[in-house]
Amino acid sequence: MSKTPAHKTTHHSSKKKCSTAEIVGQGQLLFIEIPYDEMSARVTVLPPDSVNDPFVTVDDLLIAMASHNVVFGVDNRALAEISAKIAQNAASKSLTEMVEADLAFGIPAVKSRDAQVEYFYKDEEPAESEGLPMDEEGQINYRAGRKIDNVKKGDLLIRKTPAVNGTPGKTVTGKIVPAPPGKDIVLGIGKGVVIYPENPDEYYADTDGQVVIKGGLITVQPIFEVRGDVDLKIGNINFFGTVIVHGDVKDNFKIYAGQDLIVRGVVEGAELKVDGNLTISGGVAGNDKAHITCKGNALIKYIRNTRIEVDGNLNVKQSILHSTVNCDHTITVGGAKGMIVGGQVIARREITAATFGSSFGTATEIIVGHQIDLREQILTAEIKLKEVAKNLDKTRKALIHLNSLHARNGALPADKQELYKWLSRALVKLTADSKLLTVKKTELEVKQRVFLEEKPVPRVNCLHKIYPGVKVTINRAYTVYSDEQKYCSLIDYEGEVRVSTLKTRTKADESLKK
């Protein structure tokens, strides 16, 4: 450490610079060290070389503090102790006692806090070590696809915490240490996003869709668009809004659309679940693997080797071949050559096609009528609900018994503790199952009630020909045709399938025009 006389100050170029004050007598006896940031002051007092030389006094200390402008943060208790030691050493003429102590401390600036943003629509990101997603069998799932930030209308998207400015500090020499202001984050509001009126720093979704933040602009886009095929480059799609695929949907891929789904190309052996309407311009070549469920109306070019369920109306432009089709309303296979060949086709209201079956006697089953599966499904739901209610009652009673044991004995044995955990988990699952079954049963009952209130006449409309081998069921009546039938409508008349005059304008036609 360099040392200078009391009336001089040395400034070093290093970041660890300090200024030092001295009292000069027979030797250098008093030093006040102030570091470069001036956030502290430390005093060192040395004894003289002999008893005949002057000792440092308290006045010398005060003069040195004044010369170095130590005016803030002085520890008065430490100053008193130092002064007492200096006076004691001078009085006893001690040549071995050294005084060294911290004298003053500055107050550092409190850092400002930058603005923060919480993203409520994002799931917790997986750890990097987890690697690629796995399927249920522990194999790498290359079809998983990229994660879409799905939100529902009204969901909280982002909460911003504004920047908070810090508090200035002060050095031992009285200088103010400023605190740089916190950095703000500017977020713009795009389509599909609204601000909560009572808190302008909370952003909510104004529509179903995916959250996109680009250039600080937050939007919720209601459409997810694929410019090509749904294949390994895209992966499975799970989207709360409308999905548009401009190419094909390849084998073994899945699409969930919370609203509508439009496929411009062909759907192969894929799984589609649509909460809105479905349009497949290129048709479905299902390869006995495709499974499609649609809660709205469906418009499809053709259906081949596919299992499909439609809650609304199904309009097929060309043909239904070797497929299992279940529709809550009407099925229309349009065009002069529209045909249904092979498989089982069910509609609760009406089925219309030009041709049913084929000249080869292909087994084809046509079913219309409200009771075909609604009653069975309601009955099945009721049976399951009773079973769940019975198990719930047993589980609750077992838990009550274990709770009473615990209260009586103060603790449960290890085996009873494991049983208690198992029963608690079972109670949660059974409660959830009960709620789901109740909702399902209610939905089925509403469907049945609406159907009965409208009192439709189930009907099969043949615009050209029904081939031998076709089985037709209308309500509880059924028949298997051994002869061709042409240009006719089939209805249930007093428990028998009867041939009637063809209805050229059907309910299916009317519903599709709406």
Mean pLDDT: 84
Shape: elongated
Helix content: 10-25%
**How many alpha or pi helices?**
5
Q: Which stretches are poorly predicted, pLDDT < 50 over at least 5 residues?
A: 1-17, 20-27, 124-132, 505-514
Number of strands: 33
Q: Structural class given helices, strands, pairing? A: alpha/beta
Main β-sheet description: 19 strands, mixed
Radius of gyration, in Å, reads 42 Å
Which strand-content bin applies to the residues? 35-45%
Distance between the termini: 95 Å
Topology:
Elements (H helix, E strand, L loop, with lengths): L17 E4 L8 E6 L4 E6 L12 H10 L8 H17 L6 E7 L10 E4 L30 E2 L4 E6 L7 E2 L5 E2 L10 E2 L3 E4 L2 E7 L3 E6 L2 E5 L1 E4 L10 E3 L2 E4 L8 E4 L3 E3 L7 E4 L3 E3 L3 E11 L3 E13 L3 E14 L2 E4 L5 E9 L2 E7 L7 E5 L5 H36 L4 H41 L4 E8 L3 E5 L2 E4 L4 E9 L2 E6 L5 H7 L1
Parallel strand pairs: 10-14, 15-17, 16-18, 17-19, 18-20, 19-21, 20-22, 21-23, 22-23, 23-24, 24-25, 24-26, 25-27, 26-27, 26-28, 27-29, 28-30
Antiparallel strand pairs: 1-2, 2-3, 3-4, 5-7, 6-13, 7-12, 8-9, 11-12, 13-14, 29-32, 30-31, 32-33
Helix pairs in contact: 3-4
Brief characterization of the structure:
The protein is α/β, with parallel strands linked by helices and 514 residues long. It has helices at 58-67, 76-92, 374-409, 414-454, 507-513; strands at residues 18-21, 30-35, 40-45, 99-105, 116-119, 150-151, 156-161, 169-170, 176-177, 188-189, 193-196, 199-205, 209-214, 217-221, 223-226, 237-239, 242-245, 254-257, 261-263, 271-274, 278-280, 284-294, 298-310, 314-327, 330-333, 339-347, 350-356, 364-368, 459-466, 470-474, 477-480, 485-493, 496-501.
